[in-house]
Each structure stands twice: as structure tokens, then as C-alpha cells.
């Protein structure tokens, strides 16, 4: 007799996955820091411009989701990849701490 495993939790559809990703990005990236903190000496890239770019991407996706658009896996991956890259730059610039620290 085989044992039945409990049903796995339902995977979110792509719009829900995008909403969750946007929420996670908003929790981890400090979009509300004043410019004086963002523009410190020793920048590897412009933190302010990167945050503005990422914020506009998130806002764009929020509007698109509200209008019923369904992102594909490639679009989810692209947003996640952009957020990871920007987070790494913010770590290098001393704006945020590395995850787990």
C-alpha cells in the first residue's frame, strides 16, 4: 500500500506571484531614504537613479496588474533579476546590508 502525501499548497498564478514579488522588493529595498543618504561618497553606481528606475518598474507593474494584465514567467524573472542587481549595488554603496547580516 502506498502512502499518500498531503496535497501541496497551490502555487500562485502569475499575477499573484508578481504581487508577492513587488511586496517583497518593497520590503527589502529602502525607497524612502533621503537623497543625502543615497548620494554618499564612494558610489559604484547612482543609487538614487537605480531606486527611481526600480520604483517606476514596480509602479508600472502594479498598474498593469490592476488592469488585468497577466505577466509571464520571463517578466517575473526579469523584475526579480533587476531587483537583485540593484540590491547588490546598494550593498556595495553602503545603503543596505547584505541579506542575512
Class based on secondary structure composition and strand pairing: mainly alpha
Q: What distance lies between the first and last C-alpha atoms, to the nearest angstrom?
A: 47 Å
Order of helices and strands: HHHH
Portion in beta strands: under 5%
Q: What's the shape?
A: elongated
Rg calc: 17 Å
Summarize model confidence as the mean pLDDT.
86
Low-confidence segments = none
Main β-sheet description: none
How many strands in all?
Answer: 0
Number of helical runs? 4
| Helix percentage range | 55-70%
Structure description:
- This protein has a domain at 14-25 and 42-92.
- Helices cover 58% and strands 0% of the residues.
- Helix 1 (14-28) packs parallel to helix 4 and helix 3 packs antiparallel against helix 4.
- It has helices at residues 14-28, 35-38, 47-66, 73-92.
Task: Give the helices and strands, then pairings.
Elements (H helix, E strand, L loop, with lengths): L13 H15 L6 H4 L8 H20 L6 H20 L9
Helix pairs in contact: 1-3, 1-4, 3-4
Write a compact overview of the structure shown.
By secondary structure, this protein is mainly alpha-helical. It has a domain at 14-25 and 42-92.
Amino acid at each position: 500500500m502506498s502512502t499518500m502525501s498531503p496535497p501541496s499548497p497551490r502555487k500562485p498564478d502569475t499575477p499573484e506571484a508578481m504581487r508577492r514579488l513587488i511586496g517583497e522588493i518593497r520590503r527589502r529595498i529602502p525607497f524612502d531614504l533621503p537623497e543625502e543618504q543615497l548620494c554618499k561618497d564612494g558610489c559604484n553606481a547612482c543609487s538614487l537613479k537605480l531606486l527611481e528606475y526600480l520604483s517606476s518598474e514596480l509602479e508600472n507593474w502594479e498598474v498593469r496588474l490592476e488592469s488585468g494584465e497577466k505577466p509571464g514567467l520571463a517578466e517575473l524573472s526579469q523584475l526579480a533579476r533587476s531587483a537583485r542587481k540593484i540590491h547588490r549595488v546598494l550593498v556595495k554603496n553602503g545603503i543596505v546590508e547584505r541579506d542575512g547580516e
